[in-house]
Amino acid sequence: MQPTERYTHGHHPSVVAAHASRTAANSAAYLIPHLRPGVVLLDVGCGPGSITLDLADLVAPATVVGVDNVPAVLAEATAAAERRGTSNVTFVEASAYALPQADASVDVVHAHQVLQHLADPAAALAEMRRVLRPGGIVAVRDADYGTMVHTPHDPRLDRWRDLYHEVARRNGGEADAGRHLHGWLRHAGFVDVVATSSTWTYADPEACRSWGELWAVRITAGAFADHAVDAGLATRDDLDELAAAWRTWATHPDAYFCFVHGEAIGRRP
Q1: What pTM was estimated for this model as a whole?
Q2: Domain spans of the chain, in order of start
Q3: Which CATH number fits domain 13-267: 3.30.750.200, 3.90.180.10, 3.40.50.150, 3.60.150.10?
Q4: Which residues of 145-160 are buried (b: 16+ CB within 10 A; e: fewer)?
Q5: Tell me, what's the pLDDT at 2?
Q6: What is the three-state SS of the chain?
Q7: What is the torsional sign of CA 38, 39, 42, 43?
Q8: pLDDT in tens, 216-268
Q9: CA-CA-CA-CA torsion for 234, 237, 239, 244, nearest 10 degrees?
Q10: How confident is the model at residue 193, as a pLDDT?
């Protein structure tokens, strides 16, 4: 039986657009040195496929498969591949707990910002291990919301971070997954686990405006808003106030926001 969880961010257009801006360079740089032409790769939780397409270029002519459990974003990923002319990638609807690949059929499994949203990351990692060939690697990267810092200080943004943790827990996830990846891989039976980290920083005016507006929309119009209100964790007025805090921060000349992503690579023995 698959665990029950809800995706905290949902698939509001603002969320999908933000995900589509991700690239292998800005979101999977730790994995790139392990790739070469001919590597068979599976991208779990591929979303709109922007990272998947970059990875496909790096391992061509091998075929890359991207899996997600939301047909609408898979359609966007397929359309992006067609626009780009990437022919060595396919997108398939599937759960991280029940991957369509055969046992020991994949060289690399990649999952970006996936484990933090799963109620049972250990089960998902076991499934990733199943499809990997002996000697194959899993590469996972997740944010750590507990590391998020900002200036100028605004207690409303501290409240936003606390609220995010509360909603994520209610949805079955772990908002601070980045710090747990090393241990999760070890306990899932992977060996030679190497943990690293990288940061996303927003400091120039354009980046701050974009990041602030993204969160202002997410917490008022996206799935996060519905989850927070349905759980009794916030009212719509509360969320409007938090959105106002994001927009105030985003236009301040001293605005700065930074957080850590945990990364880990492990090998199947």
Answers
A1: 0.95
A2: 13-267
A3: 3.40.50.150
A4: bebbebeeebebbeeb
A5: 52
A6: CCCCCCCCCCCCHHHHHHHHCCCHHHHCCCCHHHCCCCCCEEEECCCCCHHHHHHHHHHCCCCEEEEECCHHHHHHHHHHHHHHCCCCEEEEECECCECCCCCCCEEEEEEECCHHHCCCHHHHHHHHHHHEEEEEEEEEEEECHHHCEEECCCHHHHHHHHHHHHHHHHCCCCCCHHHHHHHHHHHCCCEEEEEEEEEEEECCHHHHHHHHHHHHHHHHHCHHHHHHHHCCCCCHHHHHHHHHHHHHHHCCCCCEEEEEEEEEEEECC
A7: negative
A8: 999 999 899 999 999 999 999 999 999 999 999 999 999 999 999 999 999 99
A9: -150
A10: 98
